[in-house]
Design a protein that fits this description.
Alpha-Beta Plaits, three-stranded antiparallel beta sheet
Length: 119
């Protein structure tokens, strides 16, 4: 019986380390400007377990460090979608997209042109 308790205790200790507390991920997120950057990073960081979020205006890559014991990339994606930004393969709802500032309408080619200086 004592051996069984020891085996169960060891299994529980090992399985507790199975998930990474510093998991890394990169997501492709649509946006167009510095305000988008702030919104995307804030939505990510407001997800429990996210420790680091940096989005690039140029590459649209969101680099993340998060505690996989507390969250998953699907939860982070959902928070970004709720903030009005598309994540590769999934579009934000029209209602969520409508909440972004007019300067941030990344689906609108005329807005994109003004950010690129192609008036």
């Amino acid at each position: 019986m004592k051996q069984l308790v020891m085996i169960v205790a060891m299994f529980c200790a090992v399985s507790g380390f199975a998930q990474n507390k510093n998991a890394k991920a990169t997501l492709e997120v649509d946006g167009i400007c510095g305000m988008c950057k702030t919104r995307i990073e804030k939505a990510s960081l407001n997800t429990k377990g996210v420790k680091y979020a940096q989005w690039s205006v140029e590459t649209h890559e969101l680099k993340l460090i998060y505690d996989a014991r507390k969250t998953a990339t699907d939860s982070i994606k959902q928070r970004i979608l709720e903030a009005g930004h598309d994540v590769k393969g999934v579009k934000a709802t029209d209602a969520a997209y409508a909440t972004v500032h007019p300067c941030c309408k990344y689906r609108d080619t005329s807005v994109i042109d003004t950010h690129n200086g192609d008036d």
